[in-house]
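Hi W.,

Here's what went into the run:
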Amino acid sequence: MIDVNVLRKNPEILFESQKRRFQDDGIVREAIRLDSEWRELLRRSNSLKSDKNKLVREIGDRIRSGRGADDIKIKAAEIDREIERLETSLKDTETRRDEVLKKIPNIVDSSAPVARDETGNVAVLFDGTARVFRDDKDSFLEQSNQRMKYELSDFKPKSHVDLLVKRGLANLESAAAVAGSRFYYLLGDLVLLESTLENYALKFLQKKGFMLLEPPFMMNREATNGATDFTAFEDTLYKIEGEDLYLIATSEHPIAAYLSNTILEEGSLPLLFAGISPCFRKEAGAHGKDTKGIFRVHQFNKIEQFAFVRPDDSRIYHERLLENAKEFYRALEIPFRIVDIATGDLGNVASRKFDIEAWYPAQGQFREVVSASNVLDYQARRLKVRYRGKEGNVFVHTLNSTLIATTRTLVAIIENNQQEDGSIVVPKVLRDAMGKEVI
RNA sequence: GCGGGGAUAGCCGAGCGGUAAGGCGACGGCCUGCUAAGCCGUUUCCCUUUGGGAGCGGGGGUUCGAUUCCCCCUCCCCGCGCCA
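Here's what came out:
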């Protein structure tokens, strides 16, 4: 949620932000209108309550001194009725104002590339050496702006779907029969690889000073709505029938809600959490996209970086979370590029966002594996996460970044490390813990 | 699931129909060669701030007036039951 004081005192900031996002500013105007209506109603209501409180005190005085108070009791009752009328419309206006206010997107960072949609995203860095199949060379050169090292591969890389099924490392047909499409059974060494990868990721973040955290995998509506815009997520979330519970779509949400309604000591910041949890997503709107395999699925495990920081520090920590992810994928020797997400493609919550897109040789494409967002105080305001600053309580800034979404990272390993015979080379950093060099 | 006990400000904690004590911590000031102590003030949120209003886990009710009485709900603690 944006700061209502910005709406009152500097609405031009919001108009400008909406323009950069290529979004209509009607929502901002509507919020301004409802807010001034609300303030007028509040003023009138408070003034009546003040009158009422004076009367109550007088009634008390009179009763204690043995005088009658029936006449002013009648007056007090009249004021009560008037207050009740005002309060009703006050609450109604407040509800409508808050609904609109919550829908106003975060203020975009002035350095984010301005463009209407994802075609305006800017690749800012290429890392690693990509294995590229001969037929994909031209397409690769274009996607990498000729700024990335590569080596040509003579054999045509198999898609992870074929590899996994043929090698008996996953069963997708049974999963479809048992749970539906976009589910999977992982088998044998792939389970071990996943587990080793997760373990490696957790140790990696613990060494970087993150508190490891496994959250509840379900949240009630109120908490969910604090962590994100509920209406925007309704197509994503699975609801538990008969309960006020939703399966989490990412541990970002329970981590964000972890400190809701708390006031922290300034010295305790920054607070860094590494969340591990399964993620459940309906993928409603994704019909036809990535229908095969485990790239886009209803359930996957994710290890997430999350930071609560002082406002002045959020840019530095945004950089740091991204840096961690870069270091991690470099260690896995997965080639990737970093993309600076354009204003029109940011989503409501982020002020600035960088994605890491791994190179998938079988798909011949860079695809998202990491998304690192600076949310500023947008989430913290809604959840009321503050710290005691020199001049009162201040909302913290929150940042989040994937470290691994297991399925996508596994697919990247599988596609990049496959050999002609279909075996998969285990990344060097995982070999000791895995106990194998090849699967 | 059953019975009993709880929830008060950042934390601890009193009040139990008359309008939120006290302590700790934090911040500011006074004092001080410096620190500590001591003293004074501030320390929930909202509004158009020389002023008002709301707020005692949440929601309703009784009352001129509710932290206090009544009802419903949530969570925590103790015991019993069930159980990976």
